[in-house]
UniProtKB/TrEMBL annotation:
Residues 8-69 form the Ubiquinol-cytochrome C reductase hinge domain. Its main location: mitochondrion. GO terms for cellular component: mitochondrial inner membrane. The lineage of its organism: Eukaryota, Viridiplantae, Streptophyta, Embryophyta, Tracheophyta. This is Cytochrome b-c1 complex subunit 6. It comes from Aegilops tauschii subsp. strangulata. Belongs to the UQCRH/QCR6 family.
Length: 69
């Protein structure tokens, strides 16, 4: 990659924000363990997944938009 190409800071910021959302991640991982043996396919962890990424996004957004000015 050339040195003059722009770099998307979003991935870096997400990695920096993930430790702040460890409770949501823990809740999601607990849910995955709880439903992994579900034979019916009715159980899911969509809510916990979105809670985790919502937390990460709330942390990333102000920092990302600050860089876009």
């Amino acid at each position: 990659m050339a040195d003059n190409e722009p770099v998307d800071p979003k991935n870096y910021l997400e990695e920096r924000c993930k430790p702040q959302c460890v409770k949501s991640l823990y809740d999601y991982e607990r849910c995955v363990k709880r439903v992994e043996n579900d034979e019916t396919g009715q159980k899911h962890c969509t809510g916990q997944f979105f809670d985790y990424w919502s937390c990460v996004d709330k942390c990333v957004a102000p920092k990302l938009f600050e860089k876009l000015k």
